[in-house]
Specification:
The protein is an alpha+beta fold. About 30% of the residues lie in helices and about 25% in strands. The protein is built from ten helices and 27 strands. The chain has a four-stranded antiparallel beta sheet with strand order 5-11-8-9, covered by helices on one side. The longest helix has about 45 residues. The N terminus is likely disordered.
């Protein structure tokens, strides 16, 4: 190629024809550089066998795109062929050290220099480029892997839709490449080699930054919840009724209702958790008092108290549906199963009848008890509760529903840490009934909820 006095670019062909190629030239190059076609620098441009060979457990490595698409030779998934079949394939092309392998089907455009000494064969997905001079090999690999080389490959690729993208072998010689003087090629290659470690390091840092950006919201939200349920998100107000007094008062009220026959014995949960003078934690149930210090996950502010979930909420477990039984006793409603309270699943239900007491309404708090212990407020239409899903309703005189909603996922994480599950992780009745719940004063609960909501909205 020569540049005319008008600074246009022309290409002269073997038959003597000359064609202006200004529309192909992406930019001007320094004095001493030249534009040329890749084919003029190559002694051979070929590809591997188009037929799948007979693989063996050992023998000669048989390489395809998956073995070089990372930019390095990867033999972990390499297949092998017999020496006899390798010899036959070498009649088409016998790749050797110093050649260039080019991904031309599937993962397009990645090129590497053959730097290893052992024999190997290649599949059709790899192009084999053999430069006329080994002096230009490193620079050619650098150019093909550059943004300019990638852009050209994208412009000539064929396929798509139901077909795999590929670069036709006949298009490869037409790649336009700018060539510096040999000494400058070497300096470029050496400079790039010296920068590889820094590029890899910055690439790793960039990846870590991207991961952090993706995780920062969930991590901060988790930290906010951890701080909140320990009484460190908002300040305590000494004028507010302590949770211990609230719990004692409610227990006495229920004892009075029991004596009057207005509630049943099962509805009276006589559990009082307190800190003794020895700084240990105790639980009084009826007339019996036992130490539970080892169960307490963290200390609470002085105005807070611990209680069991059964004391501050109602837990309704789903019914194991039997169509015949519910046809006899029930009403037809959509059925909520475990899949319906796992994030990302579609709310599709069967229409099986059930007793109305198993009905759940929009706003009810549901907990998936198998696999992922997910907590969510039901946003669908009125439905029925199946087994392995439970509805938890906070006793509003003790704890606000949203405070309980914010605490339960943290509690479930601790359960997962402390329990060995034989097969599928499962929250049992015992896990939930005896789950320890931190209870702040009622007004402080409201302030905590408002602050969490405010910070969560800020993180969106």
């Amino acid at each position: 190629m020569n540049t005319c006095r008008l600074s246009s670019y022309y290409e002269k062909f073997a038959n003597g024809d000359v064609k202006c190629i200004d529309d192909e030239i992406p930019f001007d190059i320094p004095r001493g550089w030249e534009w040329c076609r890749l084919g003029t620098l190559m002694a051979t441009i070929s590809d591997g066998t188009h037929k799948t060979p007979h693989y063996t457990s050992t023998g000669i490595p048989f390489l395809s795109v998956q073995n070089i698409s990372s930019g390095q030779l990867d033999l972990e998934k390499a297949k092998y062929i017999s020496p006899i079949e390798h010899k036959k394939l070498c009649e088409r092309i016998a790749p050797t050290k110093g050649d260039i392998l080019l991904c031309r089907i599937g993962t397009l455009g990645k090129a590497i220099k053959v730097y290893w000494d052992f024999e190997f064969s290649v599949f059709v997905s790899l192009g084999v480029l053999r430069p006329v001079s080994s002096d230009v090999t490193d620079y050619i690999v650098t150019f093909i892997n550059s943004p300019l080389g990638f852009k050209w490959i994208q412009s000539v690729k064929v396929g798509g839709g139901t077909h795999t993208y590929k670069i036709n072998l006949g298009d490869i010689p037409r790649m336009l490449i700018c060539i510096p003087p040999l000494a400058e090629q070497r300096r470029i290659s050496e400079r790039l080699l010296s920068l590889n470690d820094k590029v890899d390091k910055y690439g790793l840092l960039q990846k870590q930054l991207e991961n952090l950006n993706e995780e920062i919201g969930p991590r901060l939200k988790k930290s906010i919840l951890q701080v909140a349920i320990r009484g460190k998100l908002v300040s305590q107000d000494p004028t507010e009724e302590p949770a211990s007094m609230l719990l004692n008062r409610i227990t006495k009220e229920k004892q009075k209702l029991l004596r009057e026959g207005k509630i049943k014995k099962k509805d009276l949960v006589e559990s009082l958790i307190f800190r003794g003078e020895d700084n240990k934690y105790y639980e009084k149930v009826g007339e019996e008092t036992v130490e539970i210090t080892d169960e307490i996950p963290f200390d609470l502010p002085e105005s807070w108290s611990w209680c069991r979930l059964k004391q501050c909420s109602e837990v309704l477990y789903g019914y194991p549906f039997d169509s015949q039984r519910f046809n006899e006793i029930g009403i037809g409603k959509p059925v909520i199963r475990i899949r319906n309270v796992i994030p990302g699943t579609t709310n599709t239900f069967t229409d099986e009848p059930c007793e109305s007491r198993y009905q759940i309404l929009p706003g009810d708090m549901l907990v998936g008890m198998d696999g992922v212990f997910n907590v969510q407020f039901w946003k669908g239409t009125p439905a029925l509760l199946n087994q392995r899903v439970c509805r938890i309703t906070a006793s509003s005189e003790i704890i606000l529903q949203r405070f309980l909603y914010y605490y339960l996922p943290i509690a479930f994480v601790e359960i997962e840490k402390g329990v060995s599950f034989v097969t599928v992780k499962h929250l049992s009745d015992k896990h939930l009934t005896y789950l320890l719940i931190p209870i702040p004063p009622k007004q402080e609960q409201k302030r905590i909820i408002d602050r969490i909501d405010e910070l969560t909205e800020f993180l969106k």
